[in-house]
Amino acid sequence: MTAPDTENEAPVTGGTPGGGAPQDASTDDRPQSRNVRLSSPMLKAMSHPLRRRILELMHEDVPRRAADLAELVDAPANSVSFHLRQLARAGLIVEAPEHARDRRDRVWMAAGSGYVVPTPAEPVEPEDELVLRAFMDQEALDLHDVIARVTAWVPDWSSGREKRPRATIQTGLLELTEEDVRWLSDRLGELMREAIERSQRPTEESRRLWRMVGILADDSLPRPGESPAPDPVP
Question: For 98, which DSSP code?
Fold first, then answer.
């Protein structure tokens, strides 16, 4: 969706949240930024698998109808319409009547260019923390599914049985300062936005949906159940 552009915010997709769910929701009002700050009600609305899929396909400058999305997600249009209304009620998408063909035509767009979970000023309520944990558990399941499909495909490609490239994997270890991390995260976000713009250009070539997952993680992050490692000495 988007990369964080301050040290106090983190993406909900392609990264690890920087804190619990905030108590209220608003659109980030910084210049040249339209990141929607996610609240617990928003995270609850995004917990449904089909709504998550729909939201992935929504962009603030690309109008979508239920019928368009139904074809992309392979679901009945009336079911997609219901979930669009739930996403709109949560403030994640907005209606775009300027793109409608008539009064009965309902067209939707994303409420912002990205979604972030801000670091709270103080610890959140337990129920808000549970909402965020449940959301991230679903994020993890989605990521595991992608990895499973890619690793199942790689042997066919590396052996020459599959000629068409279907995925790429890039990993590496970097020694970075906190400023470096923010710079790299910003650049990755810029690249994603450029890719989205490129995907909207008219072309005679066929397009397929590709999933991009970006994770920038401190290699000293403890595994579940482990104690955090001490901070390095400057």
Answer: G
